[in-house]
């Protein structure tokens, strides 16, 4: 995993602040490969929030806070929540290959 302890702690704390303490975070994509270089931070966030508008607001707050603390980096968030209308295949890939923070 190509995130240091500080980055992992900040991401986890920020996600829990924005999405609730029950939220879980997995890192997936190129940052899970210790031998790769570069790449954006791909996060799968699982939350119990049910209202899509609340999820969008939480995602925007989370993205802004992470940018403030971690600096300008490309951070992609995939949000899984009950009642999600679509279930893109990337959700299954992120769940199966992602590493928990």
TrEMBL record:
Domain Polymerase nucleotidyl transferase: start-end pairs: 9-52
Pfam families reported for this sequence: NTP_transf_2
Domain of life: Bacteria
Matching SUPFAM superfamilies: Nucleotidyltransferase
Name the record gives this protein: Nucleotidyltransferase domain-containing protein
Lineage, top ranks: Bacteria, Pseudomonadati, Pseudomonadota, Gammaproteobacteria, Oceanospirillales
């Amino acid at each position: 995993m190509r995130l240091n302890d500080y980055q992992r702690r900040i991401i986890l704390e920020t996600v829990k602040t924005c999405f609730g303490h029950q939220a879980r975070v997995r890192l997936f994509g190129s940052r899970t490969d210790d031998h790769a270089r570069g790449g954006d931070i791909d996060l799968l966030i699982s939350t119990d929030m049910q209202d899509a508008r609340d999820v969008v607001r939480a995602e925007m707050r989370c993205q802004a806070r992470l940018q403030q603390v971690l600096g300008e980096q490309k951070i992609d968030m995939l949000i899984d929540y009950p009642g999600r209308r679509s279930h893109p295949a990337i959700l299954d890939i992120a769940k199966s290959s992602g590493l928990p923070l």
